[in-house]
Amino acid sequence: MKLRTALAASALLAAPFTVHAAPVTGPYVSLGAGTNFTLPLGYTESRSAPSPWGGKLLSRPSYAGEGGVGYGFGNGMRVELDGNYFHNTLHVSDETTPSYHHMRTSGGLNTYGFMLNGIYDFSLGWPVQPYLGAGIGYQWLQLAHRVNDGGDYYMSGTRGSFAYDLVAGLSYQLPMVPGLSATAEYRFTQLISSPNYRLDYGRGTTTVKIGQSFNNTILIGLRYQLFNAPAAVAPAPAPMPVAAPAPMPAKTYLVFFDWDKAVLTPRATQIIAEAAADSKTQNVTTLNVSGYTDTSGTVVYNQGLSERRAKAVAAKLVDDGVPAAEIEIHAYGETHLLVPTGPNVREPQNRRVEIVLN
Hints:
- This protein is mainly β.
- It has two domains: 3-225, Porin; 251-357, CATH 3.30.1330.60.
- The protein has three helices and 15 strands.
- The chain has helices at residues 3-13, 266-281, 299-319; strands at residues 25-38, 41-46, 53-73, 77-95, 103-121, 128-147, 154-173, 180-191, 196-200, 205-210, 213-225, 251-256, 287-291, 327-331, 352-357.
- The strands form two sheets. Strands 1, 2, 3, 4, 5, 6, 7, 8, 9, 10 and 11 form an eleven-stranded antiparallel sheet that branches.
- It is rod-shaped and about 105 Å long.
């Protein structure tokens, strides 16, 4: 896969689609494929010579793959354990000795291992969701290198090293499959040790010290939330019919809640007590109690949160002397916003319950 192909895919994901990104909540799995660019790999060999000599191994980009499991906390933060495999094809040994400068070679570099990453998803109200992350792990570098000059010059071995990586990407929730997102991702991975490898050179063997390995990886993939996948966008629940306006309009009381809470505040209990008292002095037959949320969180979660808020207000009305038979409870989730906002916005005035006396 060429670099321009990966960039074009990233641009496609950034197009103005109508589906808005939501925070990753609960466990998920991910899978990606693409290409890896390894920077020239320095080496120094030490044989029975007056002084050590070495050079750089140059490679062509080839294929790369990554698979992971992770957990999203619903607030933008998630952790992810990844396994990866990068392959690069060796083609030149650029040694410092003039007679061996720019020698054609064959063989390959295989880098594989696992990384534990912390990742943060940015909620910007875009159709695509950018994210950044970093992590640590352990990688193995498998080297098989032969000089194509008719001689017997072969370097090989597999060595492990601690490593770190940096992650930047974009995700887009696919509307046709709830919980499934397409991803475009760049990763920088560095192996921090400089291990020794075996060198066979015809007349004997020695060791070669390989410098730190730097990998630039571009991946296109999929991510799927397992158990808390956001539900497909469905039509909003049909609101209950509102009574026709009477000579005296229906009186409305607004009870507000803290973010992600269904617990009544002291001010909320005062408003509910006022509504209960007014219902006894006016010709009231029904109290409509309707719960709402803001747009932060998933559609399914917000629907349940709005119902819990409405039930908390209804229970307090009953405590204040309102017959339960006169109360009708409705839950509308993040629909019917009091203050219009985009997705994933924490708006205090949208976190409410409306009490309407009819």
